[in-house]
Amino acid sequence: MKKIIIINGPNLNLLGKREPQIYGSLTFNEFFETIKEKYPNVSLEHFQSNIEGEIIDKLHEAGFSYEGIILNAAAYTHTSVGIGDAVAGIETPVVEVHISNTFNREDFRHQSFVAPHAKGIIVGFGLQSYELGIQSFLNPL
Known about the structure:
141 residues, Rossmann fold, 5-stranded parallel sheet, 5 helices, 20% strand, globular
């Protein structure tokens, strides 16, 4: 059974409440329950923090014992050299995901400190971005 963790960054705890026109009306926990049911043969976990250092610590913890990490570092994607360095320093492949199309938003969101170290990036498919990330680990090219 593949072991995959989803790590979410700042403000993603507000999914379902925050800007539903961009992020939808489901909470992440509601969405997570649906994907756990859809992928019963995958050991799925998730972690969310608004604190940069906690995200780095979780990457270090998962980065040598999981088969895949799906990382939505949210705003830290564009600002955190430390998270980018953490992704570079671990063995587990990381897929960077974003719910919104970051290239359709403010210019500062067009840069990622994660992407140069990621297996790939998925942006703009709503919560389905996470499912596409899972599929990338189950059906490698």
